Amino acid sequence: MNPLLQIDNLETILHTGAAPVRAVDGLSLQILQGETFALLGESGCGKSMTALSVMRLLPEAGEIVAGSIRIGEEDLLLLPEAAMRNVRGKRISMIFQEPMLSLNPVMTVAEQIGEVLRRHFNLRGAAAQKRILEILNQVGIPDASRRMKEYPFQFSGGMKQRVMIAMALAGEPELLIADEPTTALDVTIQAQVLDLMRDLQQRDGMAILLITHDLAVAAEMADRVAVMYAGEIVETATREAFFRSPAHPYSQKLFASLPGKARRRQGLPLAAISGNVPPLSREFVACRFADRCDHVWELCREVAPGWSEVTGSHRVRCHLFNEDSRPRAQEPGRGSQGPESGVQGLEGSDGSDLPAAPDRESGFAGSSLLSVTDLKVHFPIRKGLVKRVVGHVKAVDGVSLTIRQGTTLALVGESGCGKTTVGKGILQLIPPTAGSVRYNGIELAGLERDRLRQMRAEFQLIFQDPYSSLNPRMRIVDIIEEGMNALKVESDGKASHAEHPSPVPKGSRVDALLESVGVPPETKWRYPHEFSGGQRQRIAIARALAVNPRLIVCDEPTSALDVSVQAQILNLLKALQSTLGLAYLFITHNISVVEYIADEVAVMYLGRIVEQGSVDEVLGSPRHPYTQALLSAVPVIDLETKREIIHLHGDLPSPANPPAGCHFHPRCPHVMPICRENYPETSTFSSTHTARCYLYPQEPDPASPEEPGSTSPEEPGSTSPEEPGSTSPEEPGST
Amino acid sequence: MSFKPVILWTDALVYLLVAAIIAFAWYVRRHEHLLAPWRRVGHSTSGMVALTVLIFFITVGLLDTVHFRPAIGNSSSGKGDKVYSVEVLSLLDLIAAPLRTRAEKTYSAPFASHLYGRETVELADGRQVREYPRLNFGAAHLQDPETQLVADVAWRAAAGGALGLLLWCAVVASLTALLAKRSGKKYLAAFSDIWRGATGIPWNAICITLALILSVLGAALALSTHYHIFGTDKVGQDVFYQSLKSIRIGLVIGTLTTLMMLPFALLLGITAGYFRGWVDDVIQYLYTTLSSIPGVLLIAATVLMMQVYIETHPELFDTIAARADLRLLFLCIILGVTSWTGLCRLLRGETLKLREMEYIQAAHAFGVSHWRIISRHILPNVMHIVLIATVMDFSGLVLAEAVLSYVGVGVDPSMISFGTMINAARLEMAREPMVWWALLAAFSFMFALVLSANLLADAVQNAFDPRAKIWSAKAGLLPLRGRREGSKAKPVSSAVEDPAQP
Questions:
Q1: Which residues of A touch B356 (CB under 8 A)?
Q2: Torsion-angle region of residue B408: left (phi > 0), alpha (psi -120 to 50) or beta?
Q3: Cβ-contact A310, A316 below 8 angstroms
Q4: Contact call for A468 and B477, based on CB within 8 A
Q5: At A735, is the pLDDT very low, low, confident or very high (cuts 50, 70, 90)?
Q6: Cβ pair A430, A421 in contact under 8 A
């Protein structure tokens, strides 16, 4: 078959700053009719620039300096701009990452799709309306005839992405470029969108260029895979070949840096790739990965590797696979590289500098450090001139959890379910509406500001976005010292600081902290913008550690980071936990991170915890239908078993107006009449494992004889949750 | 003593401001990390050129700020007590004495030798003719202005310009010597460094600007001794002198008003945004109310009340200048009080955004006190707005002064300001033949002043925003940046040392 898209030796340059940035440097690829081609890589590798080069939508500073891009027989780079407009949206269309930003907020959905139809098919009036309705139905927007007249803000994130896909499909393109189409979406919504894309592709036979950083998404979707690194493709293979045996050391490292249960069992730290993607403004003469590669030898630093064939269509740009240049029997294979700790210097610095607290481990090991009972955080909705309270957003509605000294509790749930609010409510950054938060036996809720301030050193917070969590106008040293200054003043007489009777000079303590998180101490005079995302997150961790906390609330600390950097941060958090005996409340939506780092898991849905237990219990034998659906929606890199995704319909309901009865019932595949009436009581499966669902016996009696880890429980009136095909589409939750 | 120093209210505030700036500069010099952004300002070509021009204005303004009363002869009582003139003069007045004293009868065009209008002149023989009379001072040294004027002007301009360039050469030579000494290079090497632009601070641009200023200044000074280079106004005063005098009023109104306004805007805007709740409500009602009252009315009422007070208490003021000055001060205050609402609203909005930032949350988690969060986290992050707003206001305030002078509530009529000049020009432009030079002079001085202030503020803002560099790089590299990590920030070494700096 002739290739649909053929890119040869594409070079795109961005003219920014002093040296031009070679965003894409000699890239060649082919996409066949009707196939899905995944372009994998970390951020800053030039994936998006490749897509924009194909669309010829580069930013002002960008310029394509060499190469050719052919679609069919046409060379896009030779077309005049006017002709290019007939290609965009018609032959090639594109879906962007952020559906919230890529729809015009002041145009209705129908108008936006209508624009495409008018441009490419000259379709107007009733004919256009009919076609719009048809497309919206295709992408699975319920009640499309009404919703097409609505504005984007009236749609949820997943629905917006569907609208975006509808717009892209309106031109009936031959090639769809999807630039991280699901990165901004929740995992259950991601599963819906990926399914939709797959279905549409099968029906229309269009080709998809899928740009993603997520190996699992690529494993689910792609026919062929190419790995991009520093502006060039380093490996290309079919999906099977790639996921069975990735060849390039970079690809191997990407796999090894994925967190998961297996890794945890082995007790290994994740194989983090040290360093960062080199700046593309540099001139490359040798292998671009040489500085971060474990298999590097002299040749790698001298000659840029060409393409070598591994098997058939599996080709790789690495000297290891070149028969002529291979020096010795250095067989690359998965897992051959030694575990690389992301915490350089942790071993090197002696413990005296570190905020180690030996008394803690002896005194409190195993005892509960934090216990939250029936925590409620309600935000009033005010309306009218006098700001009368007309209702409450029940962000957190009765959450109870316990964290033991030195352990990690993961709080899992979709965005908008109140995870972050729980974290902030515990830290008293948002005053709780009701319930109690007992830290070490001391009630925090309602504590006056001064008393609370003295306690602040004990529990700290790490944020999701390392770009907004550090004040851009403060130097690193000031950022780290801030907490020390603010808390030391009052806490002079406190016992926990007895280890520093003669205060260590603050400067050297900052150095020790930075060293312990793997940031060179000499960089402490710089400003945050001079650091990469991973380094910033390390600095944020150092800031939290500066006041010797015992509990750290980690609010999605890795979701803004690349896989390899995520591995570095997870390793660091684990290492710090084992040396300092920290307890973590780990808020995340990433199940594989939970598998790797958590001891216990609490699954949250719409302000309440629906299932709670040890990590093996909850992830191994999930009981609540929501947990089951959530786990099944997580894409996995597993070529053999075709798992069954439990489809959830609709989106998370609004916490201002939660459904009556069990909050999950509008989306639940096992819904029963009773679910619509009352919120279920706790069902206990083991001493640690509990869930709230009517599928299981509703007895608050702790002596439940239920076997933990048994196969799916047989309950009257319901089908087994594991049984495929039990997804009943009743009551779509969308409003 | 042949003079008695006089410190007017605005003088005192200007001295205070200068002292504060010197203290700040001294403090910054001792702290490397505070110095770094100012170095970046020093490396900006447009900023340094603007600063060079601004320094000229500031020098004139400061010279005009040093006031004194000269002694007049011996006292009549003969007891040795000196009597001081009721006229308060400034250093500028002293330097520009020839300009100040050589008043003509009425309008005359720039470089004119005759008055602008015909007058009936009685000749020696008793005949009366209507003609353009010769000026008393302008071009008075010429026998036959018709033929000699152009050549004389050209010659004097060239001579003055050459003198200015000579001075410039001396300045450049000493500058080069200084740089050579600091960098430990040879004199010639340092000289070629300057001209190749190899120095951190763009000395070549500064030198070129300085050459322009000095040659123009030299020519202007050489000419102004024998001509009215910007003409004369209705009562025959030299417009060039008036423009120079206006600089101080412009600077005082621009800076002091801003100083009056800033505490209100900063304090109220940030507290409203930060604390929200009833504090926010109260402050919002306050500024909504204030901004719905026509500002001009409020200013007029205050200034008129002040005027009444001044006139009913003549014993408090020993000179006219003191009265005029108090009025100027109150004008600054009332302008400040009425103009903080816009900036306050901006700051409230920005603070509302900032208080939700994660680094503020982190500070809360450390138990950092509210005022410390405001001063350490929020204030530095809104400073760029303050800087832009103040510079924008600077030109607006100078214009507001002109409007108020028109209504009659501006500066005291005895003071010369751009406002009074522009106000006078209103009638002059309507006259036939048109008198254009007063407006042109006011326009070009204000233009140079405001433009250079704007350019400098631009440079300062760029240097102080640590994100500006990254943004410009990011904007190109990642137009679609979403939740995922953006481009790797290239480490910008703050240790880039300027060889010229110690």
A1: none
A2: left
A3: yes
A4: no
A5: very low
A6: yes
* pLDDT recorded at residue A728: 41
Q: Which residues contact A197 (CB under 8 A, 6 or more apart)?
A: A165, A176, A178, A181, A208, A221
Bridge partners, residue A24, by sequence? A12
Q: What is the least distance, in Å, from the CA of A453 to any CA of chain B?
A: 5
B195 at interface of A, judged by CB pairs closer than 8 A: no
What is the nearest CA distance from B9 to chain A, expressed in angstroms? 37
In the numeric block, which tokens belong to residue A137?
């139905």
Cβ partners under 8 Å of residue B293, min gap 6: none
**Is B380 in Cβ contact with A473 (below 8 Å)?**
yes
Q: What is the DSSP letter of A667?
A: G
CA distance to partner chain A, nearest, from residue B484 (Å): 5
Question: Scanning every residue of chain A, which has its alpha carbon at the shortest distance from the alpha carbon of B367?
Answer: A453
CB A720 within 8 A of CB A670: no
Q: Is B366 on the interface with A (CB under 8 A)?
A: yes
A456–B365 CB contact, under 8 Å:
yes
Does A177 have pLDDT greater than 90?
yes
Q: Is A439 on the interface with B (CB under 8 A)?
A: no
Identity of the highest mean pLDDT range in A574-578, A655-659, B78-82: A574-578
Residues from chain B that touch A23, judged by Cβ atoms under 8 A, are 477
Q: Cβ of A559 under 8 Å from any chain B Cβ?
A: yes
List, for residues A641-654, the tens digit of each pLDDT value.
566 777 777 777 87
Do residue A180 and residue B482 have CB atoms under 8 angstroms apart?
yes
Confidence of residue A129 (pLDDT cuts 50, 70, 90): very high
Tell how strand A62-71 and strand A3-14 pair up. Answer: antiparallel
The overall average pLDDT reported for chain A is 80
- Between A319-323, A345-349, B293-297, the lowest mean confidence (pLDDT) is in A345-349
Interface check for A552 against chain B (CB to CB < 8 A): the answer is no
* Residue A520 contacts B where some CB pair is shorter than 8 Å: no
Measured between beta carbons, the chain B residues lying within 8 angstroms of A47 are none
Phi, psi dihedral angles at A314 (to 5 degrees): -85, 105
Give pTM, 2 decimals: 0.76
CB A64 within 8 A of CB A53: yes
ipTM greater than cut 0.90: no
Residue A709: partners with Cβ closer than 8 Å, 6 or more residues away:
A616, A617, A620, A621
Give the position of tokens 């009517």: A694
- Residue B286 in contact with partner chain A when CB distance is under 8 A: no
pLDDT for A358: 40
A633 interfaces chain B, CB cutoff of 8 Å: no
Answer whether B485 sits within 8 Å of A44, measured CB to CB. Answer: yes
Distance of CA A465 to the CA centre of its chain: 12
Query: Rounded CA gap, B491 and B476, in Å?
Result: 17
What is the pLDDT at residue B19?
Answer: 93
Q: Find, among A511, A542, A533, the residue nearest to A524 by Cα.
A: A511
Q: Which two tokens stand for residue B442?
A: 């006011």
Highest mean predicted confidence (pLDDT) among A641-655, B73-87, B373-387: B373-387
Nearest to residue A515, comparing CAs of A275, A350, A338, A268?
Answer: A350
pLDDT at position B167, please? Answer: 93
Note whether B484 contacts A97, CB cutoff 8 Å: yes
A192-227 pLDDT per residue, tens: 888 888 888 888 889 999 998 888 888 888 999 999
The mean pLDDT value for A482-506 works out to: 56
Q: What is the pLDDT of residue A339?
A: 40
Supply the pLDDT for residue B161: 92
Packed helices A109-121 and A157-170: angle between N→C axes, nearest 10 degrees: 10
For the residues B256-283, what does the mean pLDDT come to?
A: 91
- Please report, for residues A179, A216, A591, A619, the alpha-carbon distance to residue A634 in angstroms, rounded to integers and kept in the order given: 19, 8, 7, 12
